[in-house]
Amino acid sequence: MVLKADNVRVAVTGAVYNAPKTATRPTDATVALTGYADLGYVGDGGVTETRDRSTNQIRGWQNGALVREVVTESSIKYNFILLETKKETIELYYGSKVGTDGSVKINPAKTGGRQRFVIDVIDEDEIIRIDVPDGEVTEVGDQVYVNGEAIGYEVTVTGYEMTDTTTGETYSAVKWYGSLDTEGN
Fold first, then answer.
1. CB 77, CB 50: distance < 8 Å
2. Among residues 56, 84, 91, 173, which one has the fewest Cβ atoms lying within 10 Å of its Cβ?
3. What is the pLDDT of residue 125?
4. Which of 85, 150, 156 has the alpha carbon at shortest distance from 119?
5. Which pLDDT score is estimated for 147?
6. Residues 6+ apart with CB under 8 A from 23
7. What angle do CA 24, 9, 172 make, to 5 degrees?
8. Continuous H helices in the chain
9. H/E element holding 55?
10. 96: which residues sit within 8 A by CB, 6+ positions away?
């Protein structure tokens, strides 16, 4: 086995972006984003990617042996806390537009609808880019107001499955590893 310390990545910094579903999707890890809003500082917990999968075990009648296990549900979610209090962050967190007077009408059922998200994870010159072409804020964290702490806007984005019209392949996100050795060396 060959061990290569150069292959170890650390999420030193990064950025989270959102855009309407009409925005042009990225095509690789480094292409400039068009029509996306940078959501600013993310809390020091970074971004957590969670892949959930539920299965159903099928057992044979004759001996109770496991003969198959099928996936019955699956999802991918990204959770992060935004630290900047600005229009884009407020609209994402509350799922409502900010008025010209700085107000937001709060309806706990509003999600802001489906939109595009991009997450860049950066380690010096190494970039990992995640494209969530059909995402929605499905959970928000508590709003806490306390002396000495930043007001955070915790959101969980769920990526919905879509079908590639060229290949027929289904997916919820695309992840590019900017310098991944795809030759196996």
1. yes
2. 56
3. 87
4. 156
5. 96
6. 34, 35, 36, 116
7. 35
8. 87-94
9. strand 48-59
10. 104, 105, 106, 107, 110, 112
pLDDT number for residue 157: 98
**For position 96, what pLDDT does the model report?**
96
- Token digits for 74? 């699956």
> What is the rounded end-to-end Cα distance, in angstroms, of the chain?
12
Q: Give the pLDDT score at 184.
A: 64
Neighbours of 61 (CB within 10 A): 7
10-residue mean pLDDT series, the chain (185 residues): 84 95 95 96 96 92 91 93 97 97 96 97 92 97 94 97 92 89 68
- With contact defined as beta carbons under 8 Å apart, do 58 and 70 qualify? yes
Task: Find out whether 25 and 116 touch, Cβ atoms under 8 Å.
Answer: yes
Q: Which two tokens stand for residue 129?
A: 């880019």
Place of tokens 């993310």: 42
Joined together, the tokens standing for residue 131 give 């494209």
